[in-house]
Write a structure and sequence with these properties.
By secondary structure, the protein is an all-alpha fold. Helices cover about 60% and strands about 0% of the residues.
């Protein structure tokens, strides 16, 4: 078995899948040329196998924290597979907290609740846990949203 062939292809698969997902997430389902199940499966398998590298995690958080054309099942599957390979950077935490609330351009309430649960689950592997306390006022203000309680 040639280690350079399989691992080289695997290394390129995640960035390619993320690029495809990023482009297709802004298109309506009818406008897409291919199904999203392929890139989503590649991303989920890579996350499960060894966690997502920082750049991949941030790209995925960017996609998930903005309004997009992905179906709820795909969004839920991607959020369930947000396994960080290393400590989670502050930028990802800020983006997740920033996506919470009501407004145009915000994710659906179910996606917001799932992202908040993810943030709670990865609290122990945050690069800087003190950043969450800086957003105490924002998080406290969101308590009136039933979906985030």
């Amino acid at each position: 078995m040639d280690p350079s062939g399989a691992s080289g292809q695997g290394r390129d698969a995640l960035p390619n899948a993320l690029d495809d997902l990023k482009q297709d997430s802004q298109k309506r389902a009818k406008e897409r040329k291919s199904a999203l199940s392929g890139p989503i499966d590649v991303i989920c398998n890579a996350a499960y196998d060894g966690g997502l590298p920082d750049a991949a995690l941030e790209t995925l958080v960017d996609i998930l924290t903005q309004s997009n054309e992905l179906d709820q099942a795909s969004i839920a599957k991607l959020i369930r597979h947000l396994y960080p390979a290393r400590r989670v950077r502050d930028e990802a935490v800020v983006k997740v907290i920033g996506c919470l609330g009501q407004g145009k351009g915000k994710p659906a309430p179910q996606a917001q609740a799932a992202m908040l649960k993810w943030l709670i689950m990865v609290f122990d592997v945050l690069e800087n846990r003190a950043i969450v306390s800086k957003f105490y006022g924002v998080l406290f203000g969101l308590l009136d949203m039933l979906s985030l309680r």
